[in-house]
Each structure stands twice: as C-alpha cells, then as structure tokens.
C-alpha cells in the first residue's frame, strides 16, 4: 500500500499520471471508474491532458462501480449523466465501450448478473478508481455482517442517503436502492487508486488504512490488495502517522 499526500491539485495531477502511465502501457486498458465529489478534479485534470494530446481513450473500455436503481441514464443525478458530464463527453472514449449498470432495468438482479459477466468477458479491471463513503463503503458496498462478492442490488443505508442528499432536491428523492460492483470484483482489479479529501473523511481514512479488516468497514479490505495507492489531501490524512506517508 502506498499513501501519497498533497493538496487537491497535487492529488489530481499525481492520480492522472497513474492513469496516463496505465494507458501508455496498455492502450486497450479496462478502467473501473467512480463518481462522487472526490474524483471530479482528477477527471478535469485528465481532460486537460487529453486536450494537450497526452492520452488517447480510443481503445479504452470502462466499467463504473454503481448506479441508483430507478433512475434513467438521462436523470440529472444518475451516475451515467455524471460520467457524461464530467468525463465521457469531454474525451474520445467510444460511448459504446463505457458501461454503467442500467438503473431502469426491469429486473435489477438479472442486470447485475449481466454486468458481472461483461466485466469477466472484458478480462477484469486493470485500473480501478475508488472514493470512500463516509461510512467506509466502496462503490455501494455498505457496511454489514457480510459483504457480497459480485455485482448486486443493495438497499442503501440511511446515512448514505443523507450523505448523498446534497446532490438531489430533497432527501426523499434519493433512491432507496442501488446496483454495485461487488467486493471481489473490486479487489480483483490489478491496480487500485483511492481518492479521499476533506476533514470529514479523516477518521474513515485512518480506520481504512490502520484499523481491523472488517465487513463493518468495507474499505478496510483494501489493506490486503497488493497494488493500492491512496491519494489524500492533508485534511483527510491528518490522523495518519507521518511514517506511513510518501509526500
Ligand atoms: C457515493 C458513491 C461512492 C463514492 C462515495 C463518496 O456513495 N457510490 O462510489 O465513493 O459516494 O463520494 P464523495 O467523493 O462525494 O465523498
């Protein structure tokens, strides 16, 4: 595990270099992508690099981590819309190579099976981007007595609905369910990049990195992954001992 600490701009630059290096090495990489506030600066930075001709997405395939059940891809708060706005529509990725669970699928369980199979057929994820939820979730793998390995439908915790209400007009509008890539599918990614920012993430970041590995904090399972790098700002890293930190 590597831990890189900088300001928001430094994190975005360093994480974008990781992605560019990945695509240089393997131009047809399979990327695992994330939504949330944390990756926005990274997406902006990568778009800048793209516009300068430093990276090409022509042969890239992507799989997003999750989607709300019940929202169409056109809904302002759907993760499909988020990805189009912040990333896909600003680079030369083929939209048909971008995958996000279909929030409007008639049968979400079948949709999850289909999605899992698509990831498998693509050969798994080469480079996986993650944020961390305030309760330690990754994707929408919520804390609990057990975790599910594969893509599945999940009932969102009330704390997650509250945390994500800032993106909707009211808390009631936040969907109660989502589809998420499962823990095994995430942990099978060859390389994992985690971005967390802000004082409110400091405790969960410390527990993720230094606490026990437990289903009560899904992100703690990242401790067993052989190639994970945390990109943290000074606030989210404030509870970590200095000896762990790279820069
Ligand atoms: C959502 C997403 C997660 C994301 C989390 C944190 O719940 N499903 O994938 O990591 O939000 O988001 P933020 O970066 O806005 O704190």
Care to give the gist of this entry?
This protein is α/β, with parallel strands linked by helices and 247 residues long. It is 30% helix and 17% strand.
Q: Globular, elongated, flat, extended or rod-shaped: what is the shape? A: globular
Number of strands: 10
- Output the structural class: alpha/beta
How far the N terminus sits from the C terminus, by CA atoms, comes to: 14 Å
Number of domains: 1
How many helix segments? 7
**CATH C-level category:** Alpha Beta
What is the overall pLDDT average?
96
Helix-residue proportion: 25-40%
Helix/strand order, N-terminal first? EHEHEEHEHEEHEHEHE
Give the biggest sheet: 7 strands, parallel
Structure, described:
It contains seven helices and ten strands. It is of the alpha/beta class. Helix 2 links the parallel strand 2 (30-33) and strand 3 (61-64). It binds 2-amino-2-deoxy-6-O-phosphono-alpha-D-glucopyranose.
Which keywords apply here?
247 residues; alpha/beta; Rossmann fold; seven-stranded parallel β-sheet; three-stranded antiparallel β-sheet; globular; binds 2-amino-2-deoxy-6-O-phosphono-alpha-D-glucopyranose
Strands, helices and their partners?
Layout: E1 2-6, H1 8-25, E2 30-33, H2 40-51, E3 61-64, E4 66-68, H3 79-86, E5 98-99, H4 108-121, E6 127-130, E7 152-155, H5 158-164, E8 177-180, H6 183-187, E9 191-196, H7 202-210, E10 228-233
Parallel strand pairs: 1-10, 2-3, 2-6, 3-5, 6-9, 9-10
Antiparallel strand pairs: 4-8, 7-8
The structure holds 2-amino-2-deoxy-6-O-phosphono-alpha-D-glucopyranose.
């Amino acid at each position: 595990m590597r831990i890189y600490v900088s300001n928001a701009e430094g994190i975005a630059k360093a994480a974008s270099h990781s992605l560019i290096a990945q695509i240089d090495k393997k131009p047809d990489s399979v990327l695992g992508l994330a939504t949330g506030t944390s990756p926005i600066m990274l997406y902006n930075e990568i778009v800048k690099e793209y516009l300068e001709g430093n990276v090409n997405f022509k042969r890239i395939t992507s799989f997003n981590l999750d989607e709300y059940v019940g929202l169409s891809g056109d809904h302002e708060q759907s993760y499909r819309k988020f990805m189009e706005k912040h990333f896909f529509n600003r680079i030369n990725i083929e939209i048909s190579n971008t995958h996000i669970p279909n929030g409007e699928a008639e049968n979400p369980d079948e949709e999850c099976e289909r999605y899992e199979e698509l990831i498998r057929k693509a050969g798994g994820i080469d480079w996986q981007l993650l944020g961390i939820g305030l309760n330690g979730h990754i994707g929408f793998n919520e804390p609990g007595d057990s975790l599910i390995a594969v893509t599945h439908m999940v009932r969102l915790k009330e704390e997650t609905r509250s945390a994500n209400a800032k993106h909707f007009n009211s808390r009631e509008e936040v969907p109660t369910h989502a589809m998420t890539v499962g823990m095994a599918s995430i942990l099978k990614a060859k390389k994992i990049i985690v971005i967390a920012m802000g004082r409110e993430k400091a405790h969960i970041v410390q527990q993720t990195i230094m606490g026990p590995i437990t289903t009560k904090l899904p992100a703690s399972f990242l401790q067993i992954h052989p190639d994970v790098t945390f990109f943290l700002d000074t606030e989210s890293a404030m509870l970590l001992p200095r000896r762990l930190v790279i820069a």
